[in-house]
Amino acid sequence: LEFSESVETYKSGFRSNTQDFSFIITKGDSLIIEGGNYQLEQNLVIPKEKFLVLNPGVSIDLINQASIVSYSHVFLNGSAKEPIEIFSSDSTGGGIFVTNTESVSTVNHCLFRNLSAPAANGWALSGAINFHEADVNIYSSSFISNRCEDFLNIIRSEFSLHDLEFSGTQSDAFDGDFVKGAIYNSTFIDCGNDAIDVSGSQLHLENIVVNLPADKAISAGENSKIWAKNIEIYGGEIGVV
């Protein structure tokens, strides 16, 4: 209950403002950003009745502590030839917070780099990329050098992660709380704490490589259940807990 109240207080600091961004194209319920380079100096907040679409080749530089917050599902549709990049050139930008969605989000061929946790009302999430009560599938994406506790944090959601790379994370690379999902064909390199950390969760792992985690490669806490196949762990303090 305390966590839920904190989240509601946190979310009250974000109000829809898509009309402030001239490069957003509205088509029905979708808010579309076409390929190109953009710089956000303030938060971009997507209302529940719309959804955000980033097309191939979008590059978004989050500066001045800006973040992307969505009350509906998102489609980040990068491609192998034209990936989507979201980063912070001034090392102040937050990240992404998707919450309470009715449909599944999709993230494909994206690079997330040098991001931190979105903050509001004196409170911040633990992750740079956050899906809270928001189911998501993520494919062929990289998470490089964050500036907060977790890089990818999924809470009370279902998910499927395929062909991901985590590198140089400040603390945990992937953190799941009360989730159900799977991670396939992914690598975790030089994590500042745990590579994979779940609590109260069910997780399937297959074809995973963890190299030099500062603490644990895989951590299953608070009655979590993990099924793992073809796991390689190199270095670190502890393999599996």
Write up what this structure looks like.
This protein has a 16-stranded mixed sheet that branches. The chain has a 9-stranded parallel sheet with strand order 4-7-10-15-18-21-23-25-27, with no helix packed on it. It has 241 residues and is mostly beta strands. The longest helix has 10 residues, at 2-11. The protein is 4% helix and 53% strand. A hairpin with a 2-residue loop joins strand 1 and strand 2. It has one helix at residues 2-11; strands at residues 25-27, 30-33, 36-40, 44-46, 51-54, 58-62, 68-70, 74-77, 84-87, 96-99, 105-108, 110-113, 119-120, 123-124, 127-132, 136-139, 142-144, 150-155, 158-162, 165-167, 172-177, 180-189, 196-199, 202-211, 216-221, 225-234, 238-240.
Q: How many DSSP H or I helices?
A: 1
Strand content: over 45%
Would you count the extended β strands for me?
27
Helix and strand string, N-terminal first? Answer: HEEEEEEEEEEEEEEEEEEEEEEEEEEE
Largest sheet properties = 16 strands, mixed
Tell me, briefly, the overall form: globular
Distance between the termini: 28 Å
Q: If you average the pLDDT, what whole number results?
A: 92
Low-confidence spans: pLDDT under 50, at least 5 residues? none
- Structural class, from secondary structure content? mainly beta
- Rg over C-alpha atoms, rounded to the nearest angstrom: 17 Å
Percentage of residues assigned to helices: under 10%
